[in-house]
Request: fold
Amino acid sequence: MKYLLYAVAGLFSGVIGGMGMGGGTILIPALTLFGGVSQHTAQAVNLVAFIPMAAVALFFHIKNKLVDTDGLLYMILPGAAFSACYAYIASFVSGETLGRVFGGFLILLSVLQFFTDKLVKKRVK
Reply:
């Protein structure tokens, strides 16, 4: 039964990841809430699962000419540096705190997405 949960979580996170939204929004809560996995482990699994999902999605986005490479290096370098720094910091933070921060991030992201969508629709009309 647990493997079915993992497969379903992988399926949905792959769909979301393929759209460029980040499969971790599905995978991490599914693993922690339903799979009984610790927050640290769920985030590590998400990072490992992200590599092939991102590679496949990137291939298709490049093929469909949806990738703008201008300024790409300016995003990659700071992103990689800060990822390394905060991964190190996260190793000292409790799983409960990480879960709360991640949950807060998802709430903030959904609120921003809601209002951004409303603003974009107003501008288009």
